[in-house]
């Protein structure tokens, strides 16, 4: 019994198909917590996502009238959609449970916390989901130190690989 459940968990994890990832957010922010949210899309947007046409580089989440909106995310127009397709950078409503929404709104209202999209993917049921990160901005010197540390780790790994 337990073995079958474990197999389904790995199959579920493999079923998540990433569409877009926001690498810039991981560099520019310290991500404290990630939350999965649904995203309200039009049919042509879903088709465009299945074709891999999305970028999250300049996107962020904003609270408006007690709702959370994804702003500035670019989902390409679907080529085969009718002329009334969708606007690529339109605001999209994020779907969350009330408690999650209240927690995110409270975190955003605190000083220095931002909700940034980290990744956009299809879950095991084929539903588009977005991973939101509650993040604090990094200062320029912190970014440089992090980059130096990563370079040093890469150099150490390269030396060890060539040695042995």
Notes on the protein architecture:
There is one protein chain. The chain is an alpha+beta fold and 164 residues long. It has helices at 2-15, 23-28, 43-50, 98-109, 140-163, and strands at residues 17-21, 29-39, 54-55, 60-64, 67-71, 74-75, 92-95, 113-122, 128-137. The protein has a single domain, classed as Beta Barrel (Small Protein B, Chain: A). It is globular and about 60 Å long. The longest helix is centred in the last third of the chain and has 24 residues, at 140-163.
Short descriptors:
164 residues, alpha+beta, Small Protein B, Chain: A, 7-stranded antiparallel β-sheet, two-stranded antiparallel ribbon, 5 helices, 9 strands, 39% helix, globular
């Amino acid at each position: 019994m337990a073995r079958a459940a474990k197999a389904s968990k790995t199959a579920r994890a493999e079923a998540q198909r990433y569409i877009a990832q926001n690498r810039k957010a991981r560099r520019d922010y310290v991500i404290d917590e990630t939350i999965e949210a649904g995203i309200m899309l039009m049919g042509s947007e879903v088709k465009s996502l299945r074709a891999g046409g999305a970028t999250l580089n300049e996107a962020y989440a904003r609270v408006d009238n007690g709702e959370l909106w994804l702003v500035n995310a670019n989902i390409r127009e679907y080529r085969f959609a009718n002329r009334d397709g969708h606007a690529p950078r339109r605001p999209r409503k994020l779907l969350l449970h009330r408690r999650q929404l209240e927690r995110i709104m409270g975190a955003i209202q605190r000083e220095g916390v931002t909700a940034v999209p980290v990744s956009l993917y299809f879950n095991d049921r084929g539903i588009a989901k977005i991973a939101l990160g509650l993040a604090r901005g990094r200062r320029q010197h912190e970014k440089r130190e992090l980059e130096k540390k990563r370079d040093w780790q890469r150099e150490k790994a390269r030396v060890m690989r060539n040695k042995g």
